[in-house]
Amino acid sequence: MNKVLRRSRRVRETPCSSCASSAAEPCLACQLQPENYVAVKDVWLDHRDDSLRIPESAPVEWAMVDLPDTVVARWDAAQGQWQSCREDYDGVAPLMRFLWLEITTHCPHQCRHCYLGNRLNRGHAPLSMIDAGLEAAKPWCPTEIVLSGGEPTMHPRFLAILQQSLDAAPGVRVLTNGWTQRAEVVRALAHPRISVEIPLLGNETVHDWMTQTPRSYARIRRSLALYVNAGVHVTLTTTVTRQTLPTLPDLRALAQELGIVFAPTPLSPQGRAADHWEDLRVIS
């Protein structure tokens, strides 16, 4: 999965040359040019700012992010505490602060653009570390906990972590590929303070090629219907690549059919995406 921090609203300072003549806002393809921007919630940041790229030296990586700023603290597993990444932290909570917690590197997919790179399938975050991280984060007053992976539902203590996260912040966002269809997990995700993001990487042919997992498209389509019917607050996402770009209208139509938000994001040169950059990047 391509992990970038963002919400569905998009902001673009100026249209690219191909859209310069348009009186309206730039077309979707131009808004999502991966060479220039990485999406961070409601803010577009220049790719030259690499502060949000996840190092590949650790099995899991945690960050604390302010809006409209970037990373303000990272978790020091050896010290068991959050280490400030900026000198001007004054202890005052911003309008939006969220914790990005990779709780596992395990995933049933082998995505060509996976940001984990060689950290994929290297292990789970220990529950004791998650306990410590959430407890130590309380003085920072996070407004949202983002549970990421890998595939977070593959953590053997996922339901306990989900409840701990609800206890630690007003909102919880789960970045899942929708692989799990376990009834107890779906029920838990239907909590009113939980939002879920599920990607479809194009149509069946493109999605299964991107994930390198046969029949994954069919499974995720079933999961989308299952989650929505169960009352889970779902956002449909996709990563915009050369292969997925032509399928965006169909994905948007699917989201409308399901009554959910569609939020495409640009490809970011992290992990495997960097290795396959020339094959995946959108060419204007």
UniProtKB/TrEMBL annotation:
InterPro entries assigned to the protein according to its UniProt record, in alphabetical order: Aldolase_TIM (IPR013785), Radical_SAM_PqqE_MftC-like (IPR050377), rSAM (IPR007197), rSAM_sf (IPR058240)
Domain Radical SAM core: 102-240
Superkingdom of this protein's organism: Bacteria
Keywords attached to this entry: Iron, Iron-sulfur, Metal-binding, S-adenosyl-L-methionine
Family annotation (Pfam families): Radical_SAM
GO molecular function: catalytic activity; iron-sulfur cluster binding; metal ion binding
PANTHER family assigned: PQQA PEPTIDE CYCLASE, RADICAL SAM DOMAIN PROTEIN
Name this protein carries in UniProt: Radical SAM core domain-containing protein
Provenance organism: Sulfobacillus benefaciens
